[in-house]
Amino acid sequence: MTVPFVPQSDRSAHNPSPRPSPLWKGRGGRVALSESESPMRTQPPARPFDTPERAAFRDMVAAFIGKEIAPHADAWDEAGDFPWDLHEKAGALGLFGFGIPEEYGGLGFDDALMRYDSGVLMGYAGVGGVNASLFSRGIMTGPIVQLASEDQKRTALTEIVSGRAGGALAMTEPSGGSDLANLKTKARKAGDKWIIDGEKTFITGGMKASWYVVGARTGGDGFGGVSLFLVPSDAPGFSRTSIERKMGWWCSDTATLHFDGCEVPAENQLGQEGACLLAIMDNFNYERLSLSAGCLGMARRCLDDAIEYAQQRETFGRPLITRQAIRHKIADMSAKIDSLDAYIQMIAWRINEARDGGGPMPAAELAKVKVLASKTAEFCASEAMQILGGAGYLRGCAVERIYREVKVMAIGGGSEEIMRDLAVKQMGL
Ligand SMILES: Cc1cc2nc3c(=O)[nH]c(=O)nc-3n(C[C@H](O)[C@H](O)[C@H](O)COP(=O)(O)OP(=O)(O)OC[C@H]3O[C@@H](n4cnc5c(N)ncnc54)[C@H](O)[C@@H]3O)c2cc1C
User: Fold this and answer.
1) CA 165 to ligand 1 centroid distance, Å
2) Are 195 and 324 contained in the same domain?
3) Where is the domain boundary, 247, 270, 293?
4) Which one, out of 178, 277, 331, 409, has a CA that is 20 to 30 A from the CA of 225?
5) Are residues 242 and 361 in the same domain?
6) CATH number, domain at 266?
7) 350 and 402 co-located in one domain
8) Residue ranges lining ligand 1, Cβ < 6 Å
9) For the segment 278-298, what is each residue's pLDDT rounded down to a tens digit?
């Protein structure tokens, strides 16, 4: 007999228990959304770096997801879209504001451990398309903060951070995404303008974004010849086409961008030629932290849903959870998740230390953990699917979505092969 499977977190999502957040203040000093208990049914064994502020932030994000995302996850993904006002709600809570000064609508501080909490909870929501579309702006605001003019920050950055406008980072090209130092899109100076020619593809948030940070070659070979440009979606010579029929992330828009003599004012070059390298590398480090935390959340959701199903489902007259083969799967998933969780928390702490002390980012660890994270999510999605049996194979189930969405985590933001190469290089070998 088929047992309909409704995960606990989906059932309780309709009824989050509201209570005011004592410490965490959202943007503008307002007390943010009401808190609810974390929807995660298993928790990390320890949070050695936790503070009341981080706990309050975590509760706020959990309440936001429980109220605004979880009840709609499946419907939005099937529809291939979600309402824009979710961007504005997330923006109003300050979720896009880490590392961004308050005068541009940001939080005025950064905290890698809060980024970790947000990433884990978004991954746990089990709808990668929402996560990708909301947070694609997070990989393009860093270079704007570092390199854009005051005017550009007051217009573009403020709009993007508030959630009123979308932003996307456009680096990958049809000729390749791993070898970014070899990108082909060109920009040439013509009077007080830059003219950009080329194509970018696989750009998350690309159909709806109002602003793009685009890498284009202005000089010689290698990354030193690449500059970054801020391109508005209404720039002359710019157009975009939607990439449809993705394996996962159905409700996120993904685009190919066309630059046919695309004109932007001279001041839209961000920094000097080659200056992009540092800005973009720092950006990639934060992206890898978020992607790793997202994988951790996805893995934990798979574990939790598998445990719940194994407790409900009976085979041969006994609950599945009593079977040793199933218990061993749960032990293996749990061990991998806990060790990944500890590793990410430690790396997030090191990022904070590096930022505060002016030291280098733990780039090798970020590269290593990204591989560990996508591998852990892949393992847990597969094991959870096996425990759920046929029920896991049906659409409308978080494990089914996560199973399809783990692969992009092993490719985007630096593939597993490129991350391993980078890690070993960063280790000085
Ligand atoms: C859904 C989705 C969303 C994305 N969003 C964005 C975005 O917002 N912005 C953006 O700029 N890009 C985005 N990307 C692109 C992504 O970053 C690239 O797909 C990724 O960097 C890999 O590039 P590629 O697909 O061109 O593969 P390639 O670079 O062609 O590589 C193909 C395979 O070969 C492996 N490989 C490459 N070189 C080596 C080597 N030297 N040794 C061993 N193996 C190697 C790679 O790891 C990969 O597995 C997105 C991709 C997807 C699928």
Assistant:
1) 26
2) no
3) 270
4) 409
5) no
6) 2.40.110.10
7) yes
8) 136, 168-172, 176-178, 202-204, 246, 249, 254, 408, 411-412, 415, 417-418
9) 778 888 999 999 999 999 999
Q: What is the CATH number of the domain that holds 413?
A: 1.20.140.10
Residues 59-81 have a mean pLDDT of 95
Residue 235 belongs to a domain: yes
Q: How far is CA 333 from the centre of its chain?
A: 22
pLDDT band at 23 (very low <50, low <70, confident <90, very high): very low
Please give the number of the atom of ligand 1 that sits closest to the Cα of 414.
21
Cβ neighbours of residue 206 closer than 8 Å, sequence gap 6 or more? 168, 170, 200, 212, 240, 253, 254, 255, 256, 257
CA-based diameter of the chain, in Å?
79
User: What is the per-residue pLDDT for 30?
Assistant: 31
Kindly state whether residue 401 falls inside one of the protein's structural domains: yes
Q: How many CA atoms lie within 13 A of 252 on its CB side?
A: 26
Give me ligand 1 centre to Cα 176, in Å.
7
Which of 411, 419, 421 has most ligand 1 atoms within 8 Å of CB, for mutation?
411
Number of helices and strands in the chain (H, E): 14, 10
**pTM for this prediction:** 0.92
35 is catalytic: no
Q: Which domain holds residue 406?
A: 276-426
User: Is residue 313 assigned to a domain?
Assistant: yes
- For every residue of 365-400, which 3-state class applies, written as one string? HHHHHHHHHHHHHHHHHHHHHHHHHHHHHCCCCHHH
Q: Which atom of ligand 1 is nearest to the CA of 417?
A: 47
